Description:
Helix content is 51%, strand content 6%. It is mainly alpha-helical. The longest helix is centred in the middle third of the chain and has 10 residues.
Amino acid sequence: MFVAYGDCGTAGALDEVVAAHGVDRLPGDHCYGFFAGVDAFAAMHEDNPFTFYLTDFLCRHFDRLVVQG
């Protein structure tokens, strides 16, 4: 059994929950890592370090994090 859900801002709390239940989570911090593959995503991020990845968290806090920041 696997959990197919990215950490996406839980700061590791998700991994604690799945470990407590004895299951594994797909590797990667978010869906971009799932779809591209962790190594391929890391290489893309290295090539484009100033990229904003549109996540649910960034959508909810876009004004505060991007516009006001």
